[in-house]
Amino acid sequence: MSRFLRIVLPALVIVAWLAIASVGGPYFGKISEVSTNDQTSFLPASADATKLQERASEFRQASGAPAIIVLERDGGLTASDQRAAGTLAADLGKRDDVQGVSPAIPSEDGDAVEIVATLTQDADTGDAVEAIRADVDDALPSGVQGYVTGPAGFTADLTEAFAGIDGILLGVALAAVFVILIIVYRSPLLPILVLGTATFALCASILVVWWLAKADIVTVNGQVQGILSILVIGAATDYALLYTARFREALRDHRTGWGATKAALRGSLEPILASGGTVIVGVLCLLLSDLNSNKALGPVAAIGIAFSLLAALSLLPALLLAFRRAAFWPLRPAYGSAHPVLTGPDARGLWARVGRLVSRRSRVVWIVCTVGLLAMGTGLVGLKADGVPQSDLVIGSSQARDGQDVLADHFPGGSGSPAQVIGSAAKVDELADAITSVDGVDSVVAAAKDAPSGTVALDQASGATPTVSRGDVLLEATLSDPADSDAAEQTVRDLRTAVERVDPDAIVGGATATAVDTNDTGVRDRTLIIPVVLAVILLILMLLLRSIVAPLVLIGSVIVSFAAALGVGALVFDHVFQFPGADPSVPLYSFVFLVALGVDYNIFLMTRVREEALRHGPHEGVLRGLGVTGGVITSAGVVLAATFAALGVIPILFLVQIAFVVAFGVLLDTIVVRSLLVPALAHDLGRRAWWPSRLSRADHHM
């Protein structure tokens, strides 16, 4: 290639990525425009809660979520307090983002009053609740406590918790990675090049995801948005570290930067593409989910990994070619300098010592590692991953949670968040009787468009009548227990059984039913998707390593490692943080990321082991492969663990649990599985690990 092209081609690549980043950068702050945290929108179309949500506007005016205002005074509300509550209700009714307001409803004990303000359909829930809370604070008489809770209140608290996902999360992740890279490379420039590559990949990913979400092709919520940022920064940095290690090696053997670039690309292209392809296939298995939130993460994460690969294999090589040896200053690799001695008595350093341990005690090493990991996995016995109440989703202070507790003290716990039933109008009385016969139901009314409150009592002799649509009516049952409690969920399950006896086509929805359907679908998803991910990744490994035994060893090691990470996580969640449980998607997401990313490191290791084994034989190949990849893979593992740990700065239970399990699991994979367990097993098996490839039939190098 001419000297001109050697200069122009890298320059064009860098300019192209600068253009992508300049366009995609501003979309960091705009992603919230196409993001939603409405739980119902993520349910499958087949769920009863979804079907009811789609038909609800047939029976009453379309509206947004209800915000429940509860005022409380210890010792009882005064007449003046009651008048202030009435004035507050009237003032809230004048707001443009409020569609309707109930009268101030006093509790039987006289200590509290409740106001239900239903938001308009197009209101921004977070902004509306923030404004209503300000109005409530201004209207409170001295000594009265006020809270805004209900579905709108919980959504607003969730939105506020996600508020730092654009800036704080990314800043923490980038800062952690930068510090680690400075320590690893002891170079001021190289960490900037690596992080620049990762940031540009994230800009491109967010740009594409924004437009896909804008076109309603993918659905984005706070957790998808946060995981995308972490996944891209972590994966792009990992791939960049692998390429950088190959480039530094090549600079010792090649005088020119162009020669070193070609050699580095030849050595890193296959493992990087295989690793990225494995992660992409793994996350795309989430498309098999019935939950739209899981389906959304699959393609969004795949887009992020694809741009991570593209940036690591185009932008970073161009940048390193531009800076060449100066990128590693002050420890620049000189042309013709000796490579580190990896094996034998002259080998020095940590990985030489690990290699000697593996070669001398391989069977003892892998047995001890396996037993230790299995012992950690016993914590799975106490894992509670069948869902948590909505009130526990936000870690730390939550006005909606505090208000829900106050509401439950003075009113039926499900006030403002009724269970809803759509059934035959011809059987309305029988349906009402079936509903009220269920333990946990406090009262039942019917939806009526012509009623001022939007509902009408079924025994009302005159006035508004229930709205009938397509031969059906909508009944609303106020539950005795808080809408997000286990007792309320059991009531909804009993309701479904009761109304089905009267009308087999009746459907039950509402906030509690949404939680029930979400949790049930999440359990079903992980039961289906986990085996599929294992099978697909096993097939990829067999094709990559041209072997059956080695991929089985790698998959087995990753399964044991995942069980250990989740087992330790369960113990920490229960006994250290005392979390109320976990969402069913926590084990699923943890599995997908840990298996895909854990296999990443095994691919980095075993492709190099195979390369060395073809020249030096299976046993020597293990030791050389371990010595060459030890430092870079450990660095990559620490970087990835740090990026996922950064998710813990967002006070959302789901993300904090994902952060711990994945970060701990990645470190376990890096330090124990990839450094000791897999090399020891491969060394113990020798050429049998590569059966049935030609390497399994060779007693010496080829």
Please name the defining characteristics of this protein.
20 helices, 10 strands, Multidrug efflux transporter AcrB transmembrane fold, Alpha-Beta Plaits, five-stranded antiparallel sheet, 702 residues, alpha+beta, 61% helix
Cα(first) to Cα(last) distance is 32 Å
What does the largest sheet look like? 5 strands, antiparallel
Query: With helices defined by DSSP (H or I, 4 residues minimum), what is the helix count?
Result: 20
**Helicity level, as a percent range?**
55-70%
Give the overall pLDDT as a whole number.
Answer: 86
Backbone shape: elongated
Please state the second-level CATH architecture of the largest domain: Up-down Bundle
**Domains, number:** 4
Describe the overall structure.
The chain is α+β, with helices and mostly antiparallel strands and 702 residues long. The protein has 4 domains: 1-34 and 166-339, Multidrug efflux transporter AcrB transmembrane fold, CATH 1.20.1640.10; 65-159, Multidrug efflux transporter AcrB pore domain like (Alpha-Beta Plaits, 2-Layer Sandwich); 347-397 and 515-521 and 540-702, Multidrug efflux transporter AcrB transmembrane fold, CATH 1.20.1640.10; 418-509, Alpha-Beta Plaits. Helix content is 61%, strand content 7%. The protein has 20 helices and 10 strands. The chain has helices spanning 3-24, 48-55, 79-93, 125-139, 150-161, 168-185, 190-214, 222-253, 257-284, 292-323, 350-360, 362-377, 399-410, 428-436, 486-502, 511-545, 549-575, 585-616, 618-645, 653-685; strands spanning 66-72, 98-101, 105-106, 112-119, 145-149, 419-424, 441-447, 455-456, 472-479, 507-509. The strands form 2 sheets. Strands 1, 2, 3, 4 and 5 form a 5-stranded antiparallel beta sheet that branches. A hairpin with a 7-residue loop joins strand 7 and strand 8. Helix 6 (168-185) packs parallel to helix 8, helix 16 packs antiparallel against helix 17 and helix 17 runs antiparallel to helix 18 (585-616). The model has no long low-confidence stretch (mean pLDDT 86).
